[in-house]
What does this fold into?
Amino acid sequence: MAAAFRAVGVDATIPPPSDSATLDLGGLNSGGEECLPHKITLGDFLKVCRSPGFDPDRTAFFMPTAQGPCRFGQYAPYLRQVLDELGYADVPVISPSSKDGYQGLTDQASELMRIGWMGLVLGDLADKFRFKTRPYERVAGDSDEMFEETLGAFELIVELPDLNAKIRLGRLADAVTRMRDRFRQIPAAYEKGRPLIGLVGEIFCRMNTFSNDELARRIEQLGGECWLSDIAEWVWYTNWGQREKLLRYRGRANLDFLKLKIKTHVQHKYEHALLAPVRDDLRGYEEPADVNDVLEMSRPYLPADGALGEMVLSVGKAIYLHGKGADGIVDISPFTCMNGIVCESVYPSVSSAHDDMPIRIFYFDGVNTNVERDLEIFLELARAYQARKTHTRVYPDYFG
Ligand code: SF4
It folds into this structure.
């Protein structure tokens, strides 16, 4: 996304990685009852304010917002309030909303969304390659290194200004081919049988390894392989939400409905083009063809038209991954997150309706817990389930 902003002329960058200073600053400037992602994002931004050379006149913070039954909608106003209190009243907080599919961005919103979508698909893809390679690599660190290199290579193309969409897409598809070939060259021992653990849950905590205490890496060290739910599913979900609202209040015969249809079509087209070079490598790792499939799977437990937010995606994706032969599901959730609490209440029913596949929620609040021991037990459950599961896993051809 930062590269996409640069492509439309905004000098954007992501904050440095979260660390203990993040937690300190976030904790000092929040009340203590906020959810962990708020503390982390606030701390990361305040770290920027304290960094050498920080120029408030040349800085704006980007904090999207959303409507719905969660505290995320309060993050941007809260950040605004803290910045004001600390003397940064002139530093703008840019805050587009999921309500309109993040349309209210810049005067180049369409271009930014178009390029940002390409970047997002590529980020998810690079993550997927990392997660499917890392557990099998012969030299520790190879996959992470390749992941970083790949992101850098993608960024160089995403950030190019004034590039025709077709040309950009073509160059990026070539970069995907290069990524595929380079990942294939990583010395690895692909052996069937590692428990495949689906990672679902709250999007920030799931993706931010500092927040989740490197849960995926820990699972790998205990002998598992992870399938991390991607970020794109959230974009498909917001499209779905926008469509439902339009249908409910304005019907199909309006310009916004047509625009949404075109946007969704273009997003599918770009995704298809970018994934084309890696179809074979992703055999067995396919994401759901349509977010509606996920929402339908969730429906008996959490109907999407009643239960809003990530909870429906987490439950639906858990069921989808059961069908893909996963051996267990870990839901990564910030402590006190309503999404996690609601999911936790339906997971026993989900599990018992799906061959008693182990599903477990892990809560994070920024303090160390004994995750290791709980994960060991979970992996044992996953192995026991693996021995009796009925949905077998499909492996790519490069597995022995
Ligand atoms: S989903 Fe949960 S953790 Fe994330 S912002 Fe909402 S309440 Fe907080």
Summary: Strands lie at 61-62, 93-94, 196-201, 225-228, 328-334, 359-364. Residues 61 and 93 are 5 Å apart (CA to CA). Residues 35, 37, 70-72, 202, 310, 334, 337-339 surround iron/sulfur cluster (CB under 6 Å). The radius of gyration is 21 Å.
